[in-house]
Every structure is written in structure tokens, then in C-alpha cells.
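Usage example:
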Amino acid sequence: MTKNFNASSLRRRGIASFAVLSLAALGLSCSGEDQSQPVDEPTADTTAPETTDAPAVDLPDVVVTYSVLAAVVSELVDGVADVVTIIPDGQDPHEFEPSAKDLENINNAAFVVANGLNFEEGLDEALEKLHDANGPVFFVGEHITVREMEEDGDGHSHGHSHGHSHGDDKSKDDDHDHDDDDHGDDDHGDDDHGDDDHDHSAGDPHLWLSPAVMLEMLPELSGELGAALGVDLTTATERVTADLTALDTELQSIMSGVAECELVTGHDELGYFADRYGCETIGAVIPSLTTTSEASAGELADLKETIAEHGAKVIFTSLGTPQAVANQIAKETGVEIVELSTHVMGSATSYADFMRLVANQIADALK
Amino acid sequence: MPGGALLDPFVANEFMRQALVASVLVALVCAVTGTYVVLRGLSFVGDALAHGVVPGIAAALLMGVSGVLGAAVSAAVMMTGISVITRKSRLSSDTAIGLLFVGMLALGVIITSRSRSFVGDITRILFGELLGVTTSDLLWQSGALAIVSAAAIIAHRPFVLMSIDDGLARTSGFSVPFFHSLMLVLVAITVVASFQSVGTLLVLGMLVAPAASGALLARRVSSMMLIAAAYGTAASYIGLLVSYHYNLAAGGSIVFVAVALFGMTAVVASTVARRREAEVPHQHEHRH
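Running the assembly step on the lines above writes:
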């Protein structure tokens, strides 16, 4: 029994549909927006980004890896440099892979500000290369008190802080051997990192979620940034310091309205925030510092127990949290899902806006 | 208490029960399609389809359309492309499959990388989200199982003949190109219906490993399918248990168990065969 599958009609139909669909697919991919474009991040008083009284001068480029950090850096270099953000706002920085243009931007920048602590996993190699060649790159994680994660018997991670506040003066704790290549979920082949200790595979990278932490690194950032750009950033630094201090106080008051702040999160992202504002992370959908890990059945069952024990009412998800899994757990435990914008600027126009938004999302959900 | 460890995870957790149902449904549909994949040497094209649906899914999700629809379009494009290249040029179907495989996968990578807010990523398409399976996913899979089983029953005779020899099928009056395409369509349906829960790579594992075990142990196609179904179900259950107790990825555990079961079967089967051969002269001696 044969159907109308003769060769020539199939060929004609096949070529036509194949061509149309391929072109459509290519057209689709080309219609997406450019990955990295120079962005003049609006400042707190939202002045028009490009127009000033001065004639159009080609300002040097300061490259920042992700949007939230870029918001802080923009306030520092407003008017003296263009801030270029590599990872588009809304893409998961834990999973981002750079294009050739991104790498070009990194290598040609007057200065690069990165998070470090294995946050921008896809950019690690390029940043390492730049660092090894003594290029102008600043890893924020090297200039703060890092939350170190350690596992207890059940495999739950707890964080505690070690003093790592000075970039050059590395006062290492004896318990943790940072030169050791203990890269759990890290699969970078070249593990030869000379003197640097910004390669904490167990250090919490979510440092931008606390203005106090940003304040820690600010003096050194503005020092190195100013030197690279050949400008004096003292006034800007003082202004940003005052703003961040005020923001910190504001967030304290927002969070003080929450009686018992226990958080169930998408992944281990609120460590610095929790430490600063009197909260505790009791569990996560993906109990890992990165979104690239997969949720496991045993850990999800544990999470359900934890939720029941603590009487938690909310699961806070964020960018990169597996929605279907979170929904299923929420359904089985009868809790609500609230999405946090911890990794995304979104509609926030400044760092202060961003932090206020996150704090209010949490405080409102826990009232 | 051993019984507790084996049943409790499923009794206490709805997500475990749903994951089990999803993977058993996959095991059943793969037992049918997979038996023919193994018998007719279609695992390469099966693998190609598992990757070839990626750009379709990526594009569909970008446009806000159902991923299943995108996967179906993608699979259709791929199969048409393979067919066109094979007929229009002197290249073998093996080369054609290879070309389409990497071409489609590369397109998928490009589409995903241009997206600003791609919900989920290639890893989740390839490995699925077994622990987040929804009731609608289960309905899709049940539907696919029904369609595939019906087609396999209707086309049973030509399929079996083609598994022995294409010429045999031809002389019995069946159009080999048509039924070959039909078989590929069934593989595509299997992949498309299952990727949301178990991912496209897991589907491939479930297509090949349990059916390979069936082919080792049986000679009749229907028996092979039953054995494949049993093995697939066992792998799902054991794999999920292992993933639960040892905190391992669910999808990966299931496929690994399926392959391990095949390995053990192969060892046992060859040991039994060797022993039987050794016994035969012995028996003859005892008879006299």
C-alpha cells in the first residue's frame, strides 16, 4: 500500500518548507536585541543620560559585568566615563556565556569591574587572562568580608565570614586552604591561579545584596578606578558613601517591621542580606550558590520538612529558579510563591531603588 | 525498615509520585518505539531528533508559543531535511543526519544566546525537569502513548518485516519509504511528548537501553516490547529511589540505571549461554 510520496513532490515540498523555516528561524534570532551596548545608567535623579552642556566628548569605557553592580559604578563615574554592562539585565549571570564582542569590550576597557567569587562563571576565563596580564580589572569579592560556605553533616550550607577586607594583605585563616583547588561545581580546566584568592569556590558571591558590603569595597574601588581614569573621584565617593549609608539605615527600618525573618529562597542568594538585616535562610529550592545546579529529589523532600518545621509561608524565587519545581513544592506544602528581583534591575533606575524593591518584596511577603 | 525506604519517598511526596508516573509513561512509549529503533539501527537518527527539536523549542518559547508545537515543527524540518539531502545528493543518510543534527543544534544555541529573558535553557530542554512535572505534561504523554501504540498495532506487520529485511517487506507489498518515515514520525512524537518532563536526552536513553535488553532476551517483537517496558519501569523506579536517597540528578539516575540493567542482563545472558554450550556434550554422555 503506497501513498503519494513520490520523489519529486517530496523534494519540492521538502526544499520549500526547509528553506522557509530556516529563514524564519534565522530572522527570529537576528531580531533579538544586541547583547552588549554602551549604557549610560541613569543616576538617582534620572537626568537625561547623554546630553550635557559640554560638546560630545568620547568618554573612556568602564566595563562592569552585570547590571546591579553597574548601577553602583555609574553613580561613581557619572560624567567622567561611559559604563558598559556585559551581561544584559534579565539574563542569568550564573549561566551567561560571552560573545566575541563582549570579550572585545572587556579587553579594550579603561577599567573592568567584576564580581568575582565565581559569580560570572562564563566570564571567568577572560577576566583571569586580563588579571594575569596585569590589566585594569577589579574583583569586588577580593575587597570585602566574604561569607564562606561550609557543609555540615546533612549537607546543608552555613555561611560565616572571614576577614578578607584588604586586597593585597591577605590574612588567611588556617582552617581553609584557599590555594587548594576544591572546585565543587566548577569545571574550568586551568586551575593554576597564582597569588589570587578571588577564586573561592565556596565563597558566597551575592555580595551586591547589602549596601554595607558595597561600602566595604568602595574606597578601594574608587581609588583604583580614579587612578586608571586619571581623575579624582573623592567628591563622587563621598556622595555615594553617604547615599549607601542612608540606604542601609532605610533598609534596617524596613526589615525591622518583620517579626521573625526566616527565608526559603530560590538558591543560596540572600546570605549577605540576611546577615545584615537579621534574617536567616532556612532552605532553598536549589541549595547551592549558583543556579546551574539541578534540584535533587532528596533535597526537595528535606526542604518540605524544613518548611513544615518552621511554619514557613513563602518560597522566594528568583531568576534561574526552576519554576515548575518551585510550584510543585509550593503546592505540596501550601505555601505562596513570591518572586524576588535579586539578580535583575528591571524597572529600578538606581541601586537604591533596586535594594528598596527587594527589601519591600521580602518584608511585604512576611508580614 | 527496608519497606519504608522503598516506598516512603513516594508515599510522602506528590512530586515523587508524579515523577514516577511521568517516567513510566516515557518507559512505555519508548518500549514500543525503542524496540524498532534498536532492531532497525535508528539510534543515530533518534539522537539527532533529540537534539534537533532544541531550536524549535527555543524559538517557540521565545515567541510565547507552546514548546511542544515548536518541537513538532523542528522535528518535521529535520526529517524533511534528512530526506531531501538523502534523495537529492549522493550523500548517505548517515551524513545527512549528521549535518541536520549539528545544524539544528547550532541554530538552537544561537537562538537561545540572543534571547534576553529566556526562561529555562538548553540544559533544561536536554535533561528535563522531572521533579516539576505537571498534570498537563502527563496528559500529553498519555496521548502520545495512545497514538504511538495505535500506530504500532496498525503497522505491526510491515514494521516487523522491515526489522528482518527491507526487501521482505517490499515483496509483501509494503512501501518501505512510507513505513520508514512513519517509524521516524513515531520516534519524533516520542521525543516531542516527553521532553518537557524528562528531557530529550533522557528519552534517547530510554529508547535504546531497555529495548536493547529486550532484544537480548527475546526473539519476537512483542516480547521484546514487553521486556523493554518492564526494564524501563524498573529503571524509573530504582532511578528515582537512588536519586532521592543519594541526592543525585533524577533524570540521569534513571538513564544510568537503565543502562546498568542492560549491562547486567548482557553479562548474565552470555554466562547462561556459555554454560548451556558447556553442558551439551555432558548431557550426551549421560544418555548412554
